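Re: weekly structure request thread

Next one in the queue (609 aa):
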Amino acid sequence: MKKFLTPGCIAMAAMIMATPPAAEANTPVDFARVKITDNFWAPRLHNHAATTVATCIDQIENKTGRMRNFEQVANGGHEHSGIFFDDSDVYKAIEGMAYTLINNPDQALEDKTDEWIDKIAAAQDKNGYINTFYTLAKPNDRWTDMDKHEMYCAGHLIEAGVAYYKATGKDKLLNVGRRMADHMMDVFGPGKRHWVPGHQEIELALCKLADTTGEKKYVDFAKWLLDERGHGIGVRLDIPWDPKFYQDLTPVAELTDISGHAVRCMYMYSGMADVMAATGENAYMDALHSLWHDVVDRNMYITGGIGSSHINEGFTVDYDMPNLDAYCETCASIGMALWNQRMNTMEPDSKYVDVVERCIYNGILSGVSLSGTKFFYVNPLESRGDHHRQEWYGCACCPSNVCRFLPSLGGYIYGVSPETIWVNLYIGSEAAMPDGKWTVNQTTSYPYDGSVALTLAGPEDEKRDIRMRVPGWCDSYKVRVNGKAVKAPVEKGYLVLSGCGNGDRIDFDMDMPVKINSADTRVAEDLGKRAITRGPLVYCVEECDNASTYDLGLKVNGTELSVGEPIAELNGAVSVLASVPGGNIRMIPYFCWDNRKAGRMKVWLDYKN
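Done, posted below.
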């Protein structure tokens, strides 16, 4: 999307360079260094800590058998309850609990986490193996079926151990994960057994383990697992192995098109990016570029949702994007955020953060109710009034994934490279840079308002470049430095403000009009339809706001769009109004739907003369 400066901008100030220096890879600023303070996210994260985490703990501990499975193993039992990958929900919840403790210290929550960790450690075999399904239900069948998520569960165990170690300094769970990783490396690897993980996750977890322990062998194992794909190794016991579904058709370095299960794809691409970052090699970059364009250009919904089919929880053919039957798993949008953040750190480009932002504000945030107690697994773009969030799921990957993702949000806002501070997302916050010298204070009412103010604090004798992302939705903006309008150059979608110093204030004011969007003409479902957006938010029509006008569409001539009033019962969400012949249509942010009365909903509206 073309971005341009408004006529009000004056000549470039002396501190702004005419030609921006070449961008370089950057590192995300850890969310432990970021305190979110705005009126949109801060209350949500507070509620997440108080309510969503507690909901997950209650479900895992009291209403399902997930923790009892670990107790059964430790006590010599033989009864497993639930699904073969249920251990992963416990680990993801612990990761979320760890992240919550970083910004919301809570002794009771830490004690509960320690209690769970003791039970998990007691369920580990002497050789390091841990998986309650196989230990309880199929003790003689370990490592026989590549679809049964043994490495997937191990990956989430490792991530939880790393998270809790960083949050508290306690290494008990980290060591459980490390012993499991060592066990897997005793069994698999060059000169040993072959293996293709049926559900990817272990690859990025191993890279985190390597980074935490300083042991490169874990990255080497992650790369070996990635490179096992595409060689006819896959085995499943109950039905034939489907190479397309498992991303096992070709070696990963040769991939060009996305296929199969959406979440598995996202975790694999994230792992590929992590291996490259850890090794300094670009072995997978051509593949990741091609895959990115295939996903974003031909298979991503306007909400950031991916994976259109309920049959394979993933992809069919390009531009097959139904609305009523859209799958769009919450986990898949989380995976998109994970992958695109990694792409942006390797080669900074605002297009990657545009995807992260689209997913966060639409495909991910819709996955949890405003109360924080109910969840969507599937996020369609239309409903007949029969699709609702649930308190939990038999397959509960999405609630536990939301539990760990949201408290890590602060880690997506800023990045750093040697002489530059990158501002990726516009979220009111106070951030301390890793060098211990610089801090950034950001104030904004985003996503409902496009005005952002940054204030810098640092050594008097040092300067930093500030690169501020110009969102893809933004067509017009103004920039002021210390009250003076400037005309800053843009590189790869980032405003480049060079030589910024202590006490400088940057005001970035983005026009945020209501927009009418059309889909690619190859998306048959959306021909003759339009969707409404404002800033990063996708809007939808919900029947409870439009009892008599729900079926009215937008008119080619005669539709007047305006920003409506905040809706108190939706936590102050700002509405959009469409005045059309026959009445007024009130639209709400997509993430807010199904929080009031049951009723129909749609994102894509008829667009007629």
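The first strand starts at residue 4 and ends at 5. The CA atoms of residues 99 and 407 lie 6 Å apart.
Next request, please.
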